[in-house]
Amino acid sequence: MTYTEIFEHLHQNPELSLEEFETTAFIKKILAEEEIEILDLPLKTGLVAHIKGSKPGKKIAFRADIDALPLEEKTNLPYKSKNPGKMHACGHDIHISVGLETARLLNHKKSELCGEVLFVFQPSEENGKGALEVLKTHVLDGIDAIFSLHSSPLLEVGQVGIKEGAITAAVDLFKIKIHGTGSHGAEPHTGRDPIAASAAVISSLQTIVSRNISPTDQALVSVTHIEGGSNWNIIPEEVLLEGTIRTTNPATRSFVSKRLAEIAKNTALAYEEEATVEIENAPPCTSNDKELAQYAWEVAQKCGLEPVRPEITMVGEDFAYYQEKFRGIMVWLGVGKTKPLHNPEFTANPKAIRAGASYFSELILNY
Question: What are residue 321's phi and psi, to 5 degrees?
């Protein structure tokens, strides 16, 4: 199959996190046709392939995530998703295709390859836990560096976004429950209204970024889910608030979580109510190695691509878990300027696959 046919098949058959069974089987099929070794690992979905060069050298990893999103596709592509409510709206079909084509190119150049390469086709990136599952296998122990890519609808095909330091944010999830006392809607004085307290909490949380964080730092607090009440004339006993914290600095990350809990609990107390706060840490900030970023920039120029320095985005990426243990870099691959990631009308130009594979094969081979 050509890389375009591979891409179109993947786009038509998206699978959600930890459900990527057919996707994994398809990747195995393509690798088997190229006689590329697939390692035996305790992964339910996803896989790691291995290419060993003819000479000793470094041990490099390349990571491509493989899961899709729970979205109904709204494009007019002839190869649009055939799975209702599922779509590759984050470009992971591009990532897999680039990974397979890169493996194919390097497998044909084993005589020039010094060292070995592990191709990580990682499941479950969208729920932020797939990288941890791969790390648990210890298959990457001892690697010298790990490379990855992410599709960018902000860049044209032929452009790559390369930047040292932070490129995505650390992600935290919060859940706040405001506990009041229910009452009749016509007799609010007989209870303690958690809806009124929740409104005050939501407004106050916005002051964390606007008044507690330096304007030169980067952070956000978003309340994304509110749930409370069951009828128009009943004041409920409890309201649930959920949302996310995004930061790019570890100290700021710790401070914002602490401040959020303080504001929620004390604001509720001012209304004679109680707030309980749960904060779950998701992936940390993705931060590129300085020397690898410089190297990646030079190789991009050598390959005839246009490297650009992207702005930090506040989205999350579990590639950060690899970077906590190994030197690593994630490169933004231009897929043509189109609708944003996670949008049901997102499209990616498959011409980006050839550009990406040529680039990453050179990046790995030269390193």
Answer: -65, -35
Distance from C-alpha of 363 to C-alpha of 361, rounded to nearest angstrom: 5
Inter-residue contact 228 to 239 (CB < 8 Å): yes
Q: What angle do CA 39, 42, 45 make, to 5 degrees?
A: 85
Number of H helices, E strands in the chain: 9, 16
Give the E-state strand segments of 53-136 in sequence order: 55-65, 114-122
User: So what's the pLDDT on residue 134?
Assistant: 98
> Can you tell me the distance from the alpha carbon of 165 to that of 287, in angstroms, rounded to the nearest whole number?
5
pTM of the complete model? 0.95
Query: Whose structure tokens read 């889910």?
Result: 225
Backbone angles phi, psi at 165, to 5 degrees: 75, -160
Would you tell me the crossing angle of helices 3-12 and 21-33 to the nearest 10 degrees? Answer: 170
Q: What is the pLDDT of residue 218?
A: 94
Tokens of 55: 């000479």
| Pairing mode of beta strands 274-281, 165-166 | unpaired
Query: Which residue in 282, 241, 248 sits closest to 264, CA to CA?
Result: 241
- Give the per-residue pLDDT at 333: 98
Cα separation, 353 vs 128, in Å, equals 24
pLDDT along the chain (367 residues), means of 10: 97 98 98 98 98 96 98 98 98 98 97 97 96 98 98 98 97 98 97 98 98 96 97 97 97 98 98 98 97 98 98 96 98 97 98 98 97
pLDDT value of position 280: 97
User: Which residues have a Cβ under 8 Å from the Cβ of 157 and sit 6 or more positions away?
Assistant: 334, 335, 336, 349, 351, 352, 355
At residue 88, the 3 state secondary structure works out as: coil
* Angle value at C-alpha 1, between 97 and 23, nearest 5 degrees: 50
Q: Are 194 and 228 in contact (CB under 8 A)?
A: yes
Q: Residue 98 in contact with residue 333, Cβ under 8 Å?
A: yes
Task: Give me the helix-helix angle, 92-107 and 21-33, nearest 10°.
Answer: 20
Instruction: Extract the tokens encoding 149.
Output: 């890519």
Q: CB atoms < 10 A from the CB of 304, how many?
A: 10
- Provide the 10 A C-beta neighbour count for residue 323: 22
